[in-house]
Structures
1.
Amino acid sequence: MNLHALKKLVVGSPLATAQARHERLSKTAALAVFSSDALSSVAYATEEILLILVLAGSAALYLSIPIGVAIAILIAVVVSSYRQTILAYPQGGGSYIVTKDNLGTLPGLISAGALLIDYVLTVAVSMAAGVAALTSAVPALFDYRVAIGVGFVAAITLANLRGLRESGKLFALPTYLFVGAAGILILYGLVRWALAWDVAAQATRPFTPAAQDLTIFLILRAFASGCAALTGVEAVSDGIPAFKPPEARNARIVLGWLGVILVSLFMGITFLARHYHLTPMVEETIVSQLARQIFGESLFYFFIQGATMLILVLAANTAFADFPRLSFFLARDGFLPRQFGSRGDRLVFSNGILILGGTAALLLVIFGGSTHGLIPLYAVGVFLSFTLSQASMVRRWLARHEPGWRWRWWVNAVGATTTGAVVLVITATKFTHGAWVVVLLIPLLVVMFMAIHRHYADVAGQLSLDGYEGPPPLEHTVLVLVGDIHRGVIHALQYARTLAPSVKGVYVELDPDKTRRLEEKWIKWGMGAPLVVLSSPYRSLLQPFLEYLNHLLALGDNHMVTIVIPEFVPKHWWQHLLHNQTALLIKGALLFRKNVVVTDVPYHLH
Amino acid sequence: MNLHALKKLVVGSPLATAQARHERLSKTAALAVFSSDALSSVAYATEEILLILVLAGSAALYLSIPIGVAIAILIAVVVSSYRQTILAYPQGGGSYIVTKDNLGTLPGLISAGALLIDYVLTVAVSMAAGVAALTSAVPALFDYRVAIGVGFVAAITLANLRGLRESGKLFALPTYLFVGAAGILILYGLVRWALAWDVAAQATRPFTPAAQDLTIFLILRAFASGCAALTGVEAVSDGIPAFKPPEARNARIVLGWLGVILVSLFMGITFLARHYHLTPMVEETIVSQLARQIFGESLFYFFIQGATMLILVLAANTAFADFPRLSFFLARDGFLPRQFGSRGDRLVFSNGILILGGTAALLLVIFGGSTHGLIPLYAVGVFLSFTLSQASMVRRWLARHEPGWRWRWWVNAVGATTTGAVVLVITATKFTHGAWVVVLLIPLLVVMFMAIHRHYADVAGQLSLDGYEGPPPLEHTVLVLVGDIHRGVIHALQYARTLAPSVKGVYVELDPDKTRRLEEKWIKWGMGAPLVVLSSPYRSLLQPFLEYLNHLLALGDNHMVTIVIPEFVPKHWWQHLLHNQTALLIKGALLFRKNVVVTDVPYHLH
């Protein structure tokens, strides 16, 4: 079949179940795999803070430093808190599982809903920021940013459908390239600052007048936007089974490294952006402005932009592993359609991948490929799942009293309280800017999860064999629809007679003259079966037949009617257009009718 | 069903076959019904002549008078020629039937193809011209002309689907209003000319410089454009059975009247347009310019524009009777799909009406609602069918020697020769302006007609019972697809056992552990039927099953396999999304497979 060949070309040949394998990662490889999402957010977090502050004019931009410090502290709190989770869940502690375990199903589902939304936003935001890194360096591409973003999403969706795994080799190079490039940028920038080389340049920066007052609310909003820097921090604790043994210990070390690198890069960029008095611009990112300022338009500038773009694309790719996996867990527990629970030809959860790619591409189009437009929707879900996950740990330590539980309880309690407060800040300050969508969507998703669960439970109950005493005896009538008498009809009649000894032909009369001729032929070819003739004053084939059928079905609840429809199959598909689609019409009208079975009997023409 | 209710609301309740009725028309009513198409063309024919002449500059416009005279002579020839056809075909002499009768099938099909194209163009051109009459009077609507035109086509399509008949009452008023309005315009204009009242106004007309040389070719092209005035002249001879008796005599009289009125209106407008030195303008029609010149922007001016618009819309409406009728004849003879041969709920040929409306609307969009753009495609088909129809009559008189055949032979011979020459002129002068489309399309349609005919003949031969000795004996295997064991599967198994004594369950194994549990349940619930377990290394449900099926089918050519698929039917349609669509998948894969019957057995959930 052609469709099959096309799918094979695009997605590749099927893989056998036995080919599923697991790769264990060293600490350096694991850092690369699990940190790309978190580290890549430094490419836009500083800019999002400045974008809000600049509303109060250039003079307010100095506040980026204290806000940056607050976010750095928040990172430290969250990292410490997750290091406790790793100890408790060495098999992998995704927020859905941890929360469902400790706080119950409903909080677990809230966490799952928040995460699903978040994975979609991770793809959209990372792609938008990745394209922004590209168009900052090559401004001619700016007008095509939506198309480029959608193209990237399509490419990564395809790669994942083919079964791109979270391979250490694939991730190590871009992640370390970015860490190296950003590190050099920051270090060299600090040197120039220490030696006061760029004093003249600062004076030339444009002055932006204030559009709003500098209120506490605005400062909190800037902080809320900067919280995007924390997205992806939880990835290490989700992926513990992929570490080389001792898994939990290695994961804790890597999470520590991640925290240190993240804080360093984020604070470095925030400090230098302030030092150079950088102001956010529509067509160029802050990182690009900074790199251009420090290195000029040299080869190294383009290298930095390229590395930034690459890590952002990889960050999107991690969501392509996380979203289908969470969907699988949800489907396994009956909260999402079963289709999310099965692996495709290439051993990946194709349905989840397709939905993630499609939704993210749609968001890119809706928001015109702009990172800033998407940011207000972002961190809500992340921090909600942080909070639920930490709160679960608080409950767990209290319930189990494992070694060191008092101290760990404190760490997680601080984590839960802090991230909970951040959820409130983000929701309040960004509500009217788009966060309301997420606040509305999470309960809707939870209601959907529960409705699906109820449906599956209900179906299972109705189909259950517990206490079932077998079906009542069945009566069976077989009808053959006759429009004319030809070889195809005789073939169908013969087939029908193998199904049941007593078969009736049914003919809907449109023209009485034709009926007489047909009845004569039926005497010769009808194999002794009676022919029922139904009259049709309105030339409808369907109506008289349905009335007759209703009459038969009224005979009893265990009376089944099989309708045999002779259908001749022409050689070429287009020839179907040349024949009345009576069979299709009748099948459509009787679809899912109780106690009715519609059977086409094909007769092949050559 | 909802769709059914919607259709009823839009199209109306079904009508019984016995409600079909025929209305006989008096001569005045018949003139109104059958002349609207022909008469309405005077609204644009003069303008189309001027539009070509003006290419050679204002100085060339005087040629409209001799060209007009040539066209008037042509009208006289064609009318005389068709008066002979009426005598020979008192049951109605449409070009397809007349040509097929006398010249054979292929010329008949050429004529039919030309006519079908022509009916579509009649709708498009008349609507475009009708909208131009409206926007000339209300220039604010000019920018919406495409939308208005498509809206008119949609409205008239709907009216015809509901069963608007060619009612004398409906047509009489607008046709006579137009004849009256145009008559007063011309008479009063001639009075003003005779009394030389408008000499000053003429001098103010703008002078247009020549863009092309005034060649014979250009003059012939102007003549070809003006031939649009003849479209619709054949309508009377198609509709003879609708006249009161004596039908043929009344029809000949009406056709004579039509010729006289048509020539008068066309020559009157052409003469006055020349007298006032009118020049074609994009935003105002010649008739509107003329009416404005003679009556000023008075109420009568708007009356003329309204009457013009109305008759153009009616002209389009006649094509809605002709196109489906011709399609019906073609379908009856096996040259178009059968679907064109059946009447819909409202006793009209719905398929033909829909295709005509859709294609005409599409043309309006493609040509931006411009009459001028469509004109080069127009008259080719009309004159081709004129020529074939007259040539048929020439052949007929020669063959039959009916009373007066010598004289009639001469009339038709002159008609055929003249219209044949016009076909050549139109094709040659307008070929590169769009006529090529029609020249290409007519043979394509003929090839399609013949391919359809061949297909039907082929099918009829294969299905024929002549020499058929009945079907060979049939062997029958019934398989029940088992995915799990629940009440729905047991219901399907019970059903399958009423079909054949030996039934097999078939299970595709994805997980060996599940197989063992299933086999245990099967012992209890399987009703003694054997269970075939197929292994699936690539997790595909379909592939192993298809291989097994191929194995069974290979047993012999008269071995049929019925596949029973248990399908449970949830209460709400959206719940279908929550279940694997295995049944659909398998039906799709086996669609029209030889010797395979797929049977869904629904199990209803509440």
2.
Amino acid sequence: MYGKFLVEGDKPVRELLKSNFTIDTIYSINTWQMTVGNSKPNQVIVTEEQLKKISTHENPNQALAVVDIPVTHNSFKNITSLNIVCDNLNDPGNAGSIIRIADWFGIENVFFSETSVDIYNPKTVSAAKGSLFRVKCIYTDLKKLFNENQSIIVYGTFMEGESIFTSNLGENAFILIGNEANGISDELLPFVNQKLGIPSFGKAESLNAAVATGIVVSEFKRRLTSL
Amino acid sequence: MYGKFLVEGDKPVRELLKSNFTIDTIYSINTWQMTVGNSKPNQVIVTEEQLKKISTHENPNQALAVVDIPVTHNSFKNITSLNIVCDNLNDPGNAGSIIRIADWFGIENVFFSETSVDIYNPKTVSAAKGSLFRVKCIYTDLKKLFNENQSIIVYGTFMEGESIFTSNLGENAFILIGNEANGISDELLPFVNQKLGIPSFGKAESLNAAVATGIVVSEFKRRLTSL
């Protein structure tokens, strides 16, 4: 199934139908199609037993869609506003949660290094809820991205960066998140203009990458709204 | 293995050794024990092959400990400071991330309703990193907890609560997190003194529960440190 991915379940497929994604085929049980209508192309009615056979879930929920992975351009100039950039992000659940964070806070773009987890795997699709269909998710060469947008400040997140509570935070930004175990890779360090950290009051060595992303993005948005 | 749980891997077991948890047995390969010393009771040397057989991991990492689940009292009076309270939390990864958040922000207690996920399952232990050994995690009747501590404000997190950016936030608080799908349960709603929400700027229906917890706790700490 090269270039395709699966969207599973009633609600995710309904969210998909509202998006611009190109749907290859929707497999659903009859009662589901009746509630959705059959105006969409390539709808196939299946029995619950058949759905179970093609689903990755143990208990599939009414519908499953085969969807084209969107093609994104590999040149991004004139980026503005807040952007999340994931360097070698590894965990599929984190990727989904981060895409959901972007959608919640109205962030248009999430960039992923080409070494990051495949966001079209079932775990990420599930963790992202419908947000995968609303946020622009782009795999690209991050060095090229930063080189093409040198006027945008790259804020790198570090365990011991300057406190996000007191740092200057701009309204046009790349918020760079590193790998879960190893942080931001050596080759991207020269691009970091400002090192940010979440103040620690305890003994944990780190926070979960998606949690840290949420806290940093929320603080950016708080500052912007209090301007 | 009633009343026991597993801690797996080099680093987690080292963190465990620094805690007050009661260790039943540590199974490790010889080279691991040599670096740690054999002053601890009940150390059993095993081969990598044997470790693989008793581990829940596909590639176990040098050591595995069988640990007593700590017994906690069921009466909590005179609670102060910030506390996280999880109502019917369902996802083991979220539970681990939330315990890590507590450890990062120096929050002593995380309370769980008795209907919440078992935090001593391998996924939560893994997601919590060493934080499970440092944060006091307590299963209890949340209604009783709130009744016994009526002077502490219960801040409930809701999709459409009052913005955390502008709400009054106290320094003694129960930060109440609801179930991933259903939010705070009906029976706890009467205990909520103040409804908090994370401002939304996009279209996501919700945030991941651990991400939301991190954002809310971070904002509480930011306010306290800027007093």
